[in-house]
């Protein structure tokens, strides 16, 4: 709860709500919980379902946008975070981490029109056929995000740069919703990123078992039992699951695995001939 | 239809022993229980095979674990040479193995000889070459093997599925315990002999025969690092559940209900050949079979009459006859399932048609069948039949075709027939399927990755991408 105590002016406080479909609704449940003095929206099962609906609705158009366009949108996010450095700092995010988060957006922005060239290829089949394998987004990804800002950016960016849309369960509500405000002003179409604040143990099972979620990123799940339960629930519709890996240092080079795990390889054949 | 004299392939080239044990640590050994495998075309018992229990699976995994240390430490160039040897031996024994496969599986010799076995050898050749080039594959500078791979394969392409599993696993330095399907264990046991001929170090490949329980022991074994399964979506779900929380790497190649879309500008004769190949190849026992024909309304009548004319020329019968197009259904259980779903198709109001066709008295047979007037709600349009049964639906616009094609939890393959390049590419982009065949169908190649979207599973087999499943 950043407040200007030096000024005599009474501060206008921010209300931290959810970010769903490009809007900032309260939880339909009407619930909030107290985090560092702020009443933060406590997302419910219904909120999770609404967010999946928004993510699904946004997905085809986002995936259908040109890679060049998606790259520019991600770069714009970096620009907007840059402009909010002070606000993130006031939320207790170390300056170096804000810098790293900005740089991560820039890094992923550049991947938008390159990942298909790295993850896909032509195949020299033994016959008169044109044959090419190219990656496509898997669809809607449920993300249980790590608690740091850099961790949060490091799970959202690789999912969306390739054309997926996400429903994120964030455990650092103020920083996450501040990031949502960045996204809302960065030409990210509504519904591409949806952020729910609340308890992962309460919301994540609904995402894991939701029939219209294609993949589940468990990066932020600390409790191994919860992770196992979620992975088991995800098996119902054979979701792709990114398991939590202990001891990840988000300042390390992320590599391409976080992107490729949320891509499907499609191979197209066509005969050659006169 | 021309009357062809029978042209049976001789089965004398195959010497099937009266019984087979489990292949563990380079040796064939007994198991407590056994089961029989039959020729589905005659119901004749071919041989008796060991039924691996939990202790047997333990021994096999332990052997694979022991072998892993030295196998993974070998230079890639040596692993490559073993795989090249295996590929060569398979080529040399190709006729024998093709006859064996047709005997145990029921597929026409034309297919086992011209499709399955050439692809098996090609697959080993392809991955052999990767073994000493892994750092160039794009999975990091020092890709490492995972350890022991537990692999469970289906009965529709027994030896080809074995090749898809074992070749990349060995090339990347993993060791293997493989369970072939209950109804088609023989080609895997003959492959064990190929491994011995190639002097593959003991324990690198272990073959445990059995039924579903054996497979379950294997995938749930705590010392298995990697699970690879090809089979039904239902079993795939169970495996995904059982693997949850264990950290085992998992790839699944599951069911399908592929749309084969024919646009009004398609070359009809070629499309008909593609439709026939798409659904009647291998008796329709193909996870990527084009089992839903989506035909543009304006050409539906013309296409269907061509298709029926063509279906009337399909020869159903003795798998070892070189003229046979459609062989035996693999098992009584599978035949029952095809019969049941087909009856439901009729009950739900679709119109059933098969060409006049005489079926042998013994064995498991099902005439090639199409259903017209099928809607998206019909079970025959939603469920995988895994037999020679085609559901025909119509559409008016490309958007409707795409909508219907994607209206399934599966996403393994799809077909597009059109002479318009831009239409093919636009539709291919929008189909949610791992393999899209345009103006062709059911083509496979070791360099070409194969695998599904959605509930058709995850991971790819074949191609550069196929290496990823076996690398850390």
UniProtKB/TrEMBL annotation, chain A:
Keywords in alphabetical order: Oxidoreductase
Domain of life: Bacteria
Pfam family, one: Aldedh
InterPro entries linked: Ald_DH/histidinol_DH (IPR016161), Ald_DH_N (IPR016162), Aldehyde_DH_dom (IPR015590)
Domain Aldehyde dehydrogenase residues, every copy: 39-246
Name of the protein: Aldehyde dehydrogenase family protein
Automatic annotation (TrEMBL), chain B:
Domain Aldehyde dehydrogenase stretches: 32-471
Pfam families per record: Aldedh
InterPro entries for the chain: Ald_DH/histidinol_DH, Ald_DH_C, Ald_DH_CS_GLU, Ald_DH_N, Aldehyde_DH_dom
Keywords attached to this entry: Oxidoreductase
Catalytic residues, chain numbering: 253
UniProt record similarity statement: Belongs to the aldehyde dehydrogenase family.
Entry protein name: Aldehyde dehydrogenase family protein
Organism, scientific name: Paractinoplanes pyxinae
């Amino acid at each position: 709860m950043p407040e200007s105590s030096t000024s005599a002016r009474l501060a206008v406080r921010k209300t931290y709500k959810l970010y769903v479909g490009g809007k900032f609704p309260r939880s339909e449940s009407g619930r909030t919980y107290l985090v560092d003095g702020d009443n933060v929206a406590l997302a419910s099962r219904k909120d999770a379902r609404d967010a999946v609906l928004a993510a699904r609705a946004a997905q085809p158009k986002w995936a259908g946008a040109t890679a060049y366009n998606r790259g520019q949108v991600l770069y714009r996010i970096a620009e907007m975070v840059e402009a909010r450095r002070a606000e993130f700092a006031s939320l207790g995010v170390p300056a170096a981490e804000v810098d790293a988060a900005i740089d991560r957006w820039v890094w992923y922005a550049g991947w938008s029109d390159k990942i298909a060239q790295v993850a896909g290829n032509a195949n020299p089949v033994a016959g008169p056929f044109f044959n090419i394998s190219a990656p496509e987004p898997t669809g809607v990804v449920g993300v249980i995000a790590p608690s740091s800002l850099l961790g949060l950016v490091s799970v959202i960016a690789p999912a969306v740069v390739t054309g997926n849309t996400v429903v994120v369960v964030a455990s650092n509500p103020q920083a996450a919703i501040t990031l949502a405000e960045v996204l809302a002003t960065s030409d990210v179409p509504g519904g591409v990123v949806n952020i729910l604040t609340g308890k992962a143990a309460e919301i994540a099972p609904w995402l894991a078992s939701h029939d219209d979620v294609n993949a589940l990123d468990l990066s932020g799940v600390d409790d191994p039992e919860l992770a196992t339960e979620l992975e088991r629930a995800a098996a119902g519709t054979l979701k792709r699951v990114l398991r939590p890996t202990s001891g990840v240092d988000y300042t390390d080079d992320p590599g391409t695995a976080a992107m490729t795990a949320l891509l499907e390889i499609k191979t197209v054949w066509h005969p050659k001939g006169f | 239809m021309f009357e062809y004299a029978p042209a049976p392939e001789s089965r004398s080239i195959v010497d099937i022993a009266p019984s087979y044990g489990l292949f563990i640590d380079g040796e064939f050994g007994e198991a407590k229980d056994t089961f029989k495998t039959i020729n589905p075309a005659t119901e004749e018992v071919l041989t008796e095979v060991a039924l691996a229990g939990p202790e047997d699976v333990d021994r096999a995994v332990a052997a694979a674990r022991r072998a892993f240390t030295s196998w993974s430490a070998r230079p890639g160039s040596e692993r490559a040479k073993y795989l090249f040897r295996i590929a060569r031996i398979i080529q040399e024994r190709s006729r024998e193995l093709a006859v064996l496969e047709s005997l145990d599986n029921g597929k026409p010799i034309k297919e086992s000889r011209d499709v399955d076995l050439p692809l098996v050898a090609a697959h080993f050749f392809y991955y052999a070459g990767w073994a000493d080039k892994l750092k160039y594959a794009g999975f990091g500078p020092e890709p490492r093997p995972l350890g022991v791979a537990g692999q469970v394969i289906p009965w529709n392409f027994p030896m080809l599925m074995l090749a898809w599993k074992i070749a990349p696993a060995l090339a990347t330095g993993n060791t293997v315990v493989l369970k072939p399907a209950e109804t088609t264990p023989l080609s895997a046991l003959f492959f064990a002999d190929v491994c011995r001929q190639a002097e593959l170090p003991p324990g690198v490949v272990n073959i445990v025969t059995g039924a579903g329980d054996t497979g379950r022991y294997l995938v749930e074994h705590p010392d298995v690092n990697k699970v690879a399964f090809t089979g039904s979506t239902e079993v795939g779900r169970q495996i995904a559940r059982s693997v949850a929380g264990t950290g085992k790497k998992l790839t699944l190649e599951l069911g399908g209900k592929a749309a084969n879309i024919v646009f009004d500008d398609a070359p009809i004769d070629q499309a008909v050949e593609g439709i026939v190949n798409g659904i009647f190849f291998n008796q329709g026992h193909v996870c990527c079979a084009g089992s839903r024909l989506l035909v543009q309304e304006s050409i539906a009548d013309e296409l269907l009459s061509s298709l029926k004319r063509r279906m009337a020329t399909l020869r159903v019968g003795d798998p070892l006859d070189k003229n046979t197009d459609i062989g035996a259904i693999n098992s009584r259980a599978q035949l029952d399932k095809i019969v049941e779903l087909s009856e439901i198709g009729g009950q739900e109001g679709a119109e059933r048609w098969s060409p006049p066709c005489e079926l042998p008295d013994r064995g498991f047979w099902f005439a090639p069948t199409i259903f017209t007037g099928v809607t998206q709600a019909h079970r025959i349009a939603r469920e995988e039949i895994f037999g020679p049964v085609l559901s025909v639906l119509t559409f008016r616009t490309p958007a409707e075709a795409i909508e219907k094609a994607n209206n399934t939890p599966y996403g393994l393959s799809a077909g597009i027939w059109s002479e318009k390049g831009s239409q093919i590419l636009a539709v291919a982009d929008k189909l949610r399927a791992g393999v899209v065949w345009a103006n062709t169908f059911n083509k496979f190649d070791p360099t070409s990755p194969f695998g599904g979207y959605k509930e058709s599973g995850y991971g790819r087999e074949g191609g550069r991408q196929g290496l990823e499943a076996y690398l850390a």
